[in-house]
Amino acid sequence: DPYAQLLLEAMKQSGCTVFNDRHFSCENCDGCVSGGFDSATSQIVLCQNNIRQQSHMNRVVTHELIHAFDHCRAHVDWFKNVKHLACSEVRAANLSGDCTLMNEIARFKFGLKGHHQTCVRDRAIRSILAVRKVSKETAEKAVDEVFDACFNDLEPFGRIPHSKTDAKRAYRDFKNRDRYNANL
């Protein structure tokens, strides 16, 4: 998957090499959660009982790898600072493909103007509420306070990948980034 390839390469370049047998775990999970990132172990958990399609698994892996990338490159306080969590959730919803037009149509949610931003905001709030015992108002406030900065943080993609083609292009650009900068 080009999304995962780019994130794994970016993490490696940031000094956080990911090993499949160490950093990924397939488990049965409660509720309708599809996956998660455990910052204490730097491990991505895939909920095998709630993922039924390859495309869904690809999105979950990408979403959780964005959290792992954020954990690698920044000093994220996942448990004490809800704004840190909110920022990573905004980035994950924005960059993972969670809010593509096709996914939103499948959810019977679609609009025209500003729909991508609305989807990212709503999914970030939903994700915070799924992992932290905070009020909806607290989650909404945290997302609203960090939204603009975190929505516009497109690392390591450099763009919002709306399709696998976009993700492949972003991966190609990422691999060539150093070569381009070396010629400046």
UniProtKB/TrEMBL annotation:
Key word Hydrolase present: yes
Protein name as it appears in the record: Mitochondrial inner membrane protease ATP23
InterPro entries: Peptidase_M76_ATP23
MF terms in GO: metal ion binding; metalloendopeptidase activity
Lineage of source species: Eukaryota, Metazoa, Chordata, Craniata, Vertebrata
PANTHER family: MITOCHONDRIAL INNER MEMBRANE PROTEASE, MITOCHONDRIAL INNER MEMBRANE PROTEASE ATP23 HOMOLOG
EC code(s) of this entry: 3.4.24.-
This protein's UniProt keywords: Hydrolase, Metal-binding, Metalloprotease, Protease
Gene Ontology cellular-component annotations: mitochondrion
